[in-house]
Amino acid sequence: MKKISGIILAVNSSQKKGEKKNNIDCGLFLKNIGLENDAHAEPGIRQVSLLARESIEKIRAKGLDVNYGDFAENLTTEGIDLPALPIGTKLKVGKKVLLEVSQIGKVCHNRCNIFYTVGDCVMPREGIFAKVLIGGKIKINDKIEIAE
């Protein structure tokens, strides 16, 4: 049985698409937009990106020195099997944010800066994307869980 809850290890933002994101303590997630001031914040199905620490560890095991945000994920999680979540799954994060899983993985048409810098990108295989249904702040150590 898949784990249905975990924690937020990092909140990450960047000014440009296709590059590593910087860790921030807390982010404001806007309804139907995404993370405020992030390059990917716009209406659509890929408003917020999530990647699990467990996925990042697979790349670390290959000997690559990677950190949270290096795969351009907005939220780095631990303890929840993100790629196993069906599209449409609702995730409650922190006190009030509600996300809806909108895409599992992605197609990378070109090798991005992340691939060239890190040597591999796990995001297309194991990252997920979500829409913001209810906005609010998300910070490090917030709980993330499947909403009933």
Q: What is the CA-CA span between the terminal residues? A: 16 Å
Q: Approximately how much helix is present in the residues?
A: 10-25%
Strand content: 35-45%
Count the domains: 1
In what order do the strands lie side by side in the largest sheet?
Answer: 1-6-5-9-8-7-11
Named CATH architecture: Beta Barrel
- Weakly predicted, low-confidence segments: none
Major beta sheet summary: 7 strands, mixed, barrel
Record field, number of beta strands: 11
Say which CATH homologous superfamily is assigned.
PK beta-barrel domain-like
Number of helices: 3
Q: CATH fold name, please?
A: M1 Pyruvate Kinase, Domain 3
Would you tell me the overall average pLDDT? Answer: 90
